[in-house]
Amino acid sequence: MDEKKVDKASIKSKGFLPQRQENMFSMRLKVVSGNLDAEKLRAIADAAEKYGSGYVHITSRQQIEVPFVKLEDVEAAINELGKQGISGGSAGKRVRAVVACQGNRVCRHGLIDCENLAYMIDKKYFGEAVPKKLKIAVTGCPSACVRPQENDFGVMGTVKPEILEENCVGCKLCEKACKVGAITVQEEKASIDTEKCILCGACISACRKDALRAEKTGCTIFVGGKAGRQPKQGTKILELADEEQLFSVLEKTFEYYRSEGLDGERLGELLERLGIEKYLNTVGCAPINGGLS
Question: What CATH topology corresponds to 3-82?
């Protein structure tokens, strides 16, 4: 392949990242929610031996990269993996693959089906062009294993607890389970400080008398976060959103970012430049008590 005719931007769009070694690329492969079946893992291992240096790198965003792919092998490598249903990852000014924890399918703390949500989001938005790049994370509970607050758009499973006083015996299991001191038991009855409650559901899981139940389960949404050289925590804009609300806010966020974002501007930078209020009006959320709901 003639190096002068190589369209490196096109190669990068397919997930091949230039290495410091001349004409060597790290082949980034798309992994949604960190899940790959054994068949695909075998195919990737074979490709790593055939086209790379016999190993893979697992990135901080649950993606797999095969380093040391030669320039002349780029097309063959991606075509061979494509036959196994494995596509290249996203790079550049595009939506990246969605990261997610295992959620309520596996984790005993999980409150939402993270894998299903991640696949739904990925199917609609993966690889879409945006002003800079857009990273999305879905986590199952406020333990926030995949750090949704450090993503452009973060989704976190949450649950609002409700006390059934007639069932409460004052055993204090819920009080002990709460890591943020939101529950107190006085005169053998539990009460919840809603200002302190982080909607994790630990109290519900701890109760053995059916005195606590889920009043509502949904998603808390964060926007504008990022890691990197200048990390920034995202802003919470909605709590306990249902699936319809989540996808409505996400679609409006994309529309806003594309219409208002400058070339090379991250979503959080856009929100800082034009102010959060304009964005909130666009997506239909409103600030409450200095925060957002």
Answer: Alpha-Beta Plaits (3.30.70)
Longest alpha-carbon distance in the chain: 81
CATH no., domain 99-158+217-292: 3.30.413.10
pLDDT value at residue 285: 86
Model confidence, pTM? 0.90
Residue 3 in this model has a pLDDT that exceeds 50: no
| 246-262 pLDDT per residue, tens | 999 999 999 999 999 99
* Residue-averaged pLDDT of the chain: 93
Task: Please say whether the beta carbons of 90 and 96 come within 8 A.
Answer: yes
Q: Flag whether pLDDT at 198 surpasses 50.
A: yes
pLDDT score for 91? 85
User: Domain limits of the chain?
Assistant: 3-82, 99-158+217-292
